[in-house]
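Give me the fold.
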Amino acid sequence: MTSTDPHGGAHRHDHADDDPMHNPDVAHEHSDIDIATVLKAAVGLFLTVVVCAVIVRGVFALFASQAAAREPKLSTLARPTGQLPPAPRLVLREPAALATFRAEETQALDSYGWVNQIGGVTHIPIAEAKKLLAERGLPTRAGGAGDASEGTHRPAYGEASGGQTIK
């Protein structure tokens, strides 16, 4: 059985007569939606989003420039970036720094080297220095000690730590 819809199109209803929910008098109205109006609304929404994005970007740029203006100015005496501060500096790896320091000390104590090459001053290993000191003794002045009353031979006068006067 063939029926004609209100818009002039013919279509076949296989189960339309059996379906209690089917109403042959109700059909799609082609005049319900206006495509031009929907497209205009979509374009308007897109333009609104673009304008808002431009405004937000401008506000952020304004805030960034204001923040940069409030930053404190660096002194002309400030150290350039990358230059280390003067010693002493904070030690970050203390065990490694101590091991390096002790290795340098040990190397200086156990080797020969120049202290002042122009002046002819050298350093010798500590063990060698102890042997020479034991053989030759401590160096003394050529004129002797000078006045016999100087040094530890002179009696002490004053107060002892206990508050008693020394005679």
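The chain has three helices and six strands.
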